[in-house]
Amino acid sequence: MGKTINIRRGYDIKLVGAAEKSTTDLPVSDVIAVKPSDFAGIIPKLLVAAGDEVVAGQALFYDKDRPNLRFPTPVSGEVVEVVRGEKRRILEVRILADRSNPRYVEFAKADPATLGRAAVIERLLDSGCWQYLRQRPYSVIADPVDVPKAIFVSGFDSAPLAPDLGYVLGQDKENFQAGLQALKVLANGNLHIGIRDGGESASESDLAGVAPENIHRFRGPHPAGNVGIQIHHVSPIQRGDIIWTVHPQDVAIIGRLFREGRYRADRVVAIAGSCVSKPQYVRVMTGQRMREILADRLNSDHCRIIQGNVLTGKTSSLDDTLSFYTNQITAIPEGDQSEFLGWLLPGFGKLSLSRTYFSWLWPKRAYNLDTNTHGEERAFVMTGQYDQVLPMNIMPVYLLKAILAKDIERMEQLGIYEVAAEDFALCEFVCTSKIDVQQIITEGLEYMRKEG
Amino acid sequence: MKFLQKFFDSTRPHFQKGGRFEKWYPAFEAFETFAFVPGHTTHGGVHVRDAMDLKRTMTAVILALVPTLLFGMWNTGYQHYLAYGMEATHLENFLFGFWKVLPIIVVSYAVGLGVEFVFCVMRGHPVSEGYLVTGMLIPLTLPVSVPLWMVALAAVFCTLLGKEIFGGTGMNFMNPALLARAFLFFAFPAYMSGDIWTDLSPEAGRALVDGYSGATNLVTFDANFHNLPSPADMFWGFEQGSIGETSVAAILIGAIILIATGVGSWRIIVACCLGALFMGLTFNFLAPADLPNHSMHTPAYYHLLMGSFAFGTVYMATDPVSAAQTERGKWIYGILIGAFTVILRVFNPAYPEAVMLSILLMNVFAPLIDHIVLEQHIKSRLKRA
I want to staple B174 with a disulfide (CB 3.0 to 4.6 A). Which of A218, A258, A431, B363 is the partner? Predict the structure, then answer.
């Protein structure tokens, strides 16, 4: 057990509508869809056609550039439709789920600790579970050829209304532990876990098998739970370093692959937000229709449905399907109402980190925020705002300017390898000039990956 | 408000693409967003946003300027009646000042915003909020007797050469209001020195009191610092000077507002004061013992109370665009402003407006300071490996 790491800079946005700790098992919907757009940067090549029978874990398409990355169907059934968009881009592969009798691609059950590294990699690639492994730098799907310096798992999520991962993992303990074993083999023992000191988090007792010195306790506000922040404080990424990261719930799915010999892709998702009438956890299948997940849980027609949290999630809709990496669904009101002299009024109900509004007088109050931008985009004017919410030894504004100037050397010097867009989400939230910070970071990472 | 909303809704098509006044869209947008915070929603990145925007920021600064403005108005009347040896109530003092100061403010805003609107319409970029503060700062840095055409000229100069040629708010490298002040100081020295600090418009049947002197305390300081008013008078501000600069007390209230709201950098304000104190103490230590009237003997804290040091430190040096932008850089930037101010005051009597020149000088150096801080940061990042 390392010593507790105190994260001082950051901010917890408190929202109303936290998920209550009860889990409902939702039946698999008749049609499940897999979206290539969940996997940024891949070019999908289809392996199936409409009418084909598939079993859970069978690959539907692969990546053109890395053919060993294959993307599986979470359910068995019949491929009913391949939905294409402009230029024949594949949008969704729809499968009519075989609900009464799910069939799986069967793998041999094995204790990952007894397998070699190569065998674990092969198993993950064959089953399509490799996609759960992501790498820093660049925040993309890991490359099986690399040997990472370490693998990091963040055992808690500190984002607004985030699921309590301690509660979620408690429902799948053995599989989680088996998954950790597999990751430990992949990392040649260098598996690091960050847990929250006294709070909603994976607990130390679930982490049997992880070296005690590699369990790191964190204390402090969001983004303390972001794996990138934890890496930065434990083992910062230098040029040439590669670190892999996995979400704990995906660790459990990897564990099932070894303990049960099956790719079983159901996951526990927190449904939260002020537009949800009974916020709670649900167990659902990846690829499930949002309409069936949210059914009659929404209390308003005019809300934004987000897959993920309000800082980093993707805008979704009832016709969308549950994405590959989603652990949380948030619904908040749309804020497309204009407000008379809104910049001048005292604004007691508004949340701001600056003290120009009065929310700092009630630090514990939870807010019902909507999606209004509260102003228009401007040039950089205020200084020092981003630094207050980015707990990294990085000068955010200069990094952003280096990205805008496409100055590779500067980006490298200022720490582009260490960051992912999610680490800058709070910077974007506080920005007075309403600049799209995450967008700039994403573009910078993309540019570095291609040119650097 | 429904009525206003309807008005904007019905006129909007004329200003949008294809409308009759398409070119004037930035002007229309400026008025509309002034009245209503628009119902824009987030797309792409974060889904919720902090309620703070640039309009709110600028409002906070204007709020912080109100105490100095009110005191400045009162003091204008007070100095006027004092010069004529007349008794006047606080209200009379204030009202006299109010009617003298108001035209200057109106001209500053009307001309400056006018130029800004024309520029934005020509360039097709949105009207930024920066001038809301600049337009208030310009009058406060001027003597009350300034001719209005000079105010207008300053506003034009400030908007065009201070800001718009660089690309607008956020792109300028010097504080626009201060640049305007410096412009007037060097272009019209005759109007910017001498007996200009008090409004001496004639009072029927009255003559100036005997012994009236139009000297500000900076002029006194250059002659012989022993003749300065008491520190308490300098603090409260019952003295002659530019409209907004005299009362350190009022400025202190503004400073508290700026620091409490987080809009102004407390680091810069504290650093400026430290720099001035340090330099003042150093001079006290080095001062020639055989010349007891040498200005190096001035008690260090006098420098914080004299002239426009407080005003410049709180409202001008803290301008986030032209100041140093790194946290460490802000300390260096502030300390240098304070130190240079005292050096200029003590050794260069030709330029009593030392604060103005020091801040402008450091505005120019701020990018260099930031560059050095950034290089240090990069070195420390490499070392961590």
Answer: B363
